[in-house]
Amino acid sequence: MKKYVRTKLVFTGTEETLKPLMQKLTSADGSAPISFAAIIPPNDAGMEESWGVSREPEELDSILCHNNTVLEYSFDTLEKAPLPVFRKLAETYPGYHMTAKYASEDYGEYCGIYESKEGEKELSFLEPDDPFVFACEIWDIDPDEEMQERMINFAEE
Q: What is the residue range of 70's domain?
């Protein structure tokens, strides 16, 4: 069974810098708030080699908030986080502080944080202190309720 990975991608900047970035990352037809093809055009080898995942993100959402100084995206991909996309964003847009937090729907088995600081073109990787709690936060699930559900399911087996 294929699992989804949810990513919360956040850029910080100014209203003057974030609005143009938002436009650059939007799909060509304007239907999706972020498009991997707008970041890395797929090559002949295919999307998975270009983006690290087999297709465009799903369950897309974006918001410009905190007095237009924070641009947040949330999206799902199949089985993996799109690391080549994160790398390309850091390389192409070094004028922003970028954080990409991701977690698979198995709550803690595959999760982490990639970050590039303003003025840097490199990504650094950070492991969450508590992967289970971190993943629950990414998926907007209460960790205590999820743990209770797991205990009930385990007891029933």
A: 4-156
